[in-house]
What does this fold into?
Amino acid sequence: MTHLFSPYEMMDLKLKNRVVMPPMCQYSVSNKDGIATDWHYTHYVSRAIGGAGLIIIEMTDVEPDGRISDYDLGIWSDDHIAPLARIVEACHTYGAKVGIQIAHAGRKAEHAAVPVAPSAIPFDNGSKTPRALSTAEVKDMVEKFRQGVARAIKAGFDVIELHGAHGYLIHQFHSPLTNQRTDEYGHDLTLFGTEVIRAAKSEMPAGMPLIMRISAKEYVEGGYGIQESIAFSQAYKEAGVDMFHISTGGESPVGVGPLGTKDKPGAHAAYQVPLARAIKHNLGVPVIAVGRLDEPALADAIIGNEEADLVAVGRGMLRNPYWTLEAADQLQKETDVPVQYRASYPSKK
Ligand SMILES: Cc1cc2nc3c(=O)[nH]c(=O)nc-3n(C[C@H](O)[C@H](O)[C@H](O)COP(=O)(O)O)c2cc1C
It folds into this structure.
């Protein structure tokens, strides 16, 4: 039986277990320069020591105005490569594989003087009105994603994740609520995403999987649902996505805004798993499930029941960097415990 601690292999990516640390912004860049600091090093390397099979570094942006805040990580300059490479190398020492989430915040870039977006529609009444990108600027943006991915490859990452979720730029392009363009990028809502995917793939070694995070459901009134997300994910799969990471929402502030909301994100355990399962089984692709999965028996059941291929634990790992080691202990599964910590796991002495 496949379980949470079964190794996982996809193309050239080999993971020691099925536990993923999902991307989580730390807003901890010191000089507004996008450069990873000692905080990032300690934060990610601790989770590698803590046993995670795959660590996906937080939203890392392809241009300064693509950041949610000036304290986000960046990948628009070669100066970003070495500090990221230092993190990747150290995580590898502890047996973790490392990915990075390449992103642009679009209209959700809070510190940009004038954010850019597919159309000039603000996130909410309190947000800046973004400027609609010209067609030429959209093509330049694809190029910025390509260059960001090229730098990530130089930094030694094992896998690339594109941020197509949570109301950020790629999501803004494929959502009819935020993309009201009349050019080719409005006629085909997946054109921007598919061009970014192809650009990313052109820089990636052939055996390296490309992950895309999507919001499989919008919560705003009139937002898309699982049928639409199956359709756009199919286009993204054909363009080169090898695995999807299934989240939801982020397109609109919940409960406010001109359109109101049609329903709210679930607060119960595993609330996004049915969507991960739907994408996995309809598209025949591997998926990462995420969202309140920090109970080890539950995470294990999702793998055992073939609802997802990998399970991500976010806030659970913010609370406890050693979540994975503890989960193995609770589930009585074999995993490498660093020799320095074995005294705390009687079965490993
Ligand atoms: C502090 C924090 C920062 C986050 N930053 C990101 C991010 O950079 N990119 C992203 O796709 N999701 C981000 N998320 C969402 C998480 O990756 C994850 O999907 C979410 O927390 C649900 O999983 P959980 O219930 O295991 O925490 C963030 C979540 C938290 C709590």
Notes: The first strand starts at residue 8 and ends at 10.
